[in-house]
Amino acid sequence: MPKWLLHSLLYAYFGGFILLIAALAWFRPATHRDNSQPIAFPHTVHAGQLGLACNFCHESVTQGPQAGMPTVDKCVSCHQAIATERPETQKLLSYQEKGEPIRWRRIHQVPDFIYFTHKRHVSSGLDCSACHGAIEEMKEVRRVRSLRMGWCLSCHRSRGASFDCATCHK
Amino acid sequence: MDRRQFLQMLGLVSGAAALSSCGSEKGQKELVSLLVPAEDGIVPGTETWQPSTCCECPAHCGLLTRVRENRPVKLEGNPRHPVNRGGLCLRGQAALWRLYHPQRLQTPLKRQADGRLQAITWAQALTEITEALQLSRQQGRKNTWLAGRTSGTLSTLIEELCDSLDIERLAEFEPFSHAALRQSYRLLLDQADLPRYRVEQADLLITIGADLLETFLSPVDYTAQASTLAADQKRHWMHLEPHYSLTGANADDRLVLTPGSEGALLLWLLHSLASQSRYQSRWSQTLQDLLPSTDLAATAGATGLKPQQLQELVSRLMQAKKPLLIVGGIATGHRNGQPVALFGALLQRLIALPWAGLDFSAAENYSRVGSLLDLKDLNQQLAADRIGVLFVSRCNPVRHSPTDLGLKAALAKATLRVGLADLADDTTDQMDLILPLAHGLETWGDTEPRRGIVGLLQPIASPRQQALSEGDLLLKLLQQATGKSPAADWAGYLQQNWQKRFSRAQLGQLMEDGYLFEPQPQPSIRLDQARAAKALRNLQLQAPLTLPAAVIAPSIRSFDGRSRSLELLSEIPDPLTTISYGSWMAVAPQTADRLRLRDGNELQIKTADWQSTQPVRIQPGLATEILALPMDSLPAPVTGIDPLTGEALRYVEGLQLNPTGKLHRLPILAGSPSQHGRGLIPKPVQRKKKNDLQHHGPRASFYPEPEYENYRWTMAIDLQRCVGCSACVASCYIENNVPVVGASDHLAGREMSWLRIEPFYDKHGRVDFLPMLCQHCNYAPCEAVCPVYAAYHNPEGLNVQVYNRCVGTRYCSNNCPYKVRRFNWWQHKRTPPLDQLRNPDVPVRSKGMMEKCTFCLQRIRIAKDRAKDDKRLVQDGEVTTACAQSCPAGAIVFGNLLDKESKIYRLTHSQRAYRVLAELGTEPGVHYLRPE
Fold it and tell me: Do B308 and B400 fall into the same domain?
């Protein structure tokens, strides 16, 4: 086999991989990025401009493992009078009319075998933004931290929190 | 960039891309905004506890139901409930399995001409029933209602329905009807119910046939009481039975007598008492003279007991201050059943009633229950074409009537047969209409298992599809048939009745605690000499049964067979034989030797008109001429009806034994019936050896001493209290999402139970039970060999398995001397809706992972979280494991060893404390308390 053929085969082989990765990287966001929520809820308005506290809506953040999602009732308690003409508010009101819960797409999630409790993290004085980023500046919520074990542990280490596997691993 | 770097980069990039594109989106779930807030105080992701009542057997233990995300996920005994006082048996644990059972009936079903079932609507079903009711009335046929034991408001409603629709309410049907006992109490003491026996207070307990720990009246209650008695060295418990039951295994003395000779024994005891001045005055001379005569030699001959044993029995009885006798179970299930029950009741009257050992103020409510004679009567009426519509609710008379009664054929003569059930059984197979009943956790209701106790049922789950509570069903039927109904729905009907019966405060208490308990006055009970004389006058004591005989023994796993369809209970091995799935027959080692049988060899036993062929399981301690057949092994676990009492006959006598030469593979889960002298449960003799060990000086170790700061979680298991009932095992299965793998995996040695009960027999056939679970060793052999640090020792003494680190080398399991680690050979999926029976605090392990007991890490976490809120440490008694919680005998204690005031500290420093295989130097965190 001539040397040039070997070289070009090798380049083609590895180059093919690079092209494949590039293609994946290019098309993935388009196909997989379905970040759209059922209602385009702007945290920029609620948490940003209005300055509502996080636990105004995410009520159980200080009481239990889950921060909790506001009930449709709670949203409507304001929105029956405020900004009712906006299309997104109309969507909200239609949920109430139909008697359907809103199924939001989940952005922050730890695996099934992990125990995570908001209550302990909030009560230790951690700010929501430590993990969730500047939500009040996000029109659409996105994950800004990896939520991977190494990232969790870096904070646990620096704050002197528990380093026992069983603290988080169920 | 050189070639090597390039390849590294390429590997990294392509690997990461492949990983990140591997469906990370799939794990995404939803966050749901509910319409309105959940009920007050419910924080998402946390648990609530709702009181309820167990309906798995007639004992009706009190429950606390753990609810997560609107689903019941775990049942626990209500610690304050007067019946079970915190314990819950394995069947009670499995009640959740019934709730989520994939085969639950969901819609009304109608049998077509070709025998197939077709789903119909409630309206159609009700119309059909009303029309049939009317038709049979016109034809002069009688409509009848046959139900299992019913109590509380439901009973009132049935009464109302039967009155207004002219339906005859038959005596209730229970396979364990205790008919002979009830007859004897009625004849001698004029009591229709069964007393609660105060085992706890007795100083001598003699049980004859009554399987207190398995199925007798209220197993959890009696397990708690009997284990307290057995744990006290000053008190004594003697059990007499022909076969080998779990109850017998736990008594201080187990005496084997010839089946059918219990009457002879009791008669001799009565005669022996007659000569005692202490008892002389308690009954008249006339009665004493009425008893047939007997003597020691004749009794010894009939019972097969040695004269010394009999004399010891009498002398113990004479010395005891508070002797208690309990007769029942299979002791009344033969042709001598009536004399056994009557002599038993008479003896109880003499020895136990004076110190209130029989508590009729807390009588078990059985007055409406009939016997097999009532079923025979129904059978005759059916055969004579006199029955129109026959309702059969919550009972299975087809299976529990003798085959020669021919009930199955007779049922066909009713114009319409309506079955009310939650799962299909032998009886619903004969029904024209099958109506689906809701589970006890899906409906409102009340129960009155005992005098003075009202238990609450409340809807914790929503009913499956179209299933209805029996109350709602009856009200709908009333509405349909008469055009009016006493209440809009069952909840409303209950409200009306409760408001009439209870004060506002009582009602509040019922809702809050899940039960109402008002001690009742002790009824005045006297022995009516004239009635007693009449009952005793014509009593015939027949000869004991001809040996070899087979005993059809009830099972702790399925009660009378009603829990048989719950797979979880087949997964948990029978405590004595450790067989999980399938049927078998227990044979004595000597008989097996004589017939050259080994475990699994098939044996046919037969008489002229009865035969059964089963694989054999050798049972140490079983009498030579006795075979024991679990009730579940037979298609009809009744061989006949005692014409005198209506009790089911549960013996077959004069058997021929024919080995067939076939071999079955039995899923026997115990490694060995013997301890092989290893001192796993050291007897006092072996304590010397332990001292020997200490004599060699402290064990040296290369490893640093483990240091624990706040907690060292530790368990103590009191083997003196443990009865081997397996409630802990069932509790562990449910709490920890332990997979149920089925018979084929059990045969391959791939059982998954985190906690097992090992029976160890000595050479006399006596058994000790050793609950075996992860020992959470200080120097755990599993941790050292894990190549990926998945087995890890945490700073609180727990041996933690980090599931997602585990790569499944199984080195840990190989190196564990206790054999408690379980490997997931498959992805164990549960058929929906059983997949909803899942504790969300415990992950479901996937294929290729090792798992084992975690000391209920999730419960510790919850307790620590609560303690941290209050800025303190977890206190003693605040956290317990699922096994410890459900143990009816209170044999398991869990706690923090570093807390010197704790119960666990006291127990682990007891004289009796030892650790299994301590000589290996693993320093387990589970301490056992040696039986004395």
Answer: no
